[in-house]
Write a structure and sequence with these properties.
- With 214 residues, the protein is of the alpha+beta class.
- It contains six helices and nine strands, in the order αααααββαβββββββ.
- The chain is elongated.
- The relative contact order is 0.14.
């Protein structure tokens, strides 16, 4: 078994934003056992790694060696109502200059804590990765945002399409019908569009996100 297995376990847990207790409960292990595995103070057994693979859809080969894709394409068996699986789309929502000519294909299902997307069901939620730095310090490059397609209500974070670019931006709806497109990074200028325009399409409202661990 290759080194840094503990670091890979920690990377997956933190990317999913599960607490130590939540991640351990999902594989029916004691938090202390998982902590020892992550800290590499104890060598994780084959059984523990197989549980992570079955519960969270993580490649056993990747856990052991770091080779290949971390995520499996098939949805693992799941009898834990606290964990649900949502579609991760191939399109990247730019938090920078945008990504042109995007296609919204499903890459795979990814696990997420049910409380992170409540009250919406997993079937009504989609996920995309963020690219760029225009939404820092809220969102960072390679974070995953969860949004509800076609949901438009109040000001907030949205996944939008603008000039054939998929973006994740903060929208501010004005009384005169205009929509301000804002970045949390002050180095990016705000943009204003009429609400009824072909230049701006609102894909849906962001209801949560997970930070990628580097």
């Amino acid at each position: 078994m290759g080194g840094n297995v503990g670091k890979r376990l920690l990377k997956i847990r933190e990317e999913l934003q599960f607490s130590l207790e939540e991640f351990a409960a999902g594989i029916r292990e004691k938090p202390e056992t998982l902590a020892e595995a992550e800290n590499e103070s104890g060598i994780p057994g084959e059984g523990l790694l197989e549980k992570v693979t079955r519960r969270y859809g993580i490649s056993l080969e990747w856990l052991k060696t770091g080779n290949g894709d971390a995520w499996l394409s098939e949805i693992p068996e799941n009898d834990d109502p606290s964990i649900v699986y949502v579609d991760l789309l191939s399109a990247t929502a730019s938090a920078g200059r945008g990504v042109e000519h995007f296609e919204m294909d499903v890459v795979r299902k990814i696990p997420v804590l049910n409380r992170m997307i409540a009250p919406y069901s997993a079937e009504k939620v989609k996920a995309v990765r963020v690219k760029g730095d225009s939404m820092t310090p809220t969102l960072f490059d390679s974070d995953i945002v969860y949004y509800v397609p076609r949901l438009v209500e109040y000001n907030g974070l949205y996944v939008i399409s603008c000039f054939n670019e998929l973006l994740c931006k903060r929208l501010d709806f004005q009384l005169n019908g205009d929509v301000q497109v804002l970045s949390d990074n002050s180095h990016y200028a705000r943009q204003v569009y009429p609400r009824e325009t072909d230049l701006l399409t609102i894909a849906g409202k962001v209801i949560g996100w997970t930070h990628r661990q580097h």
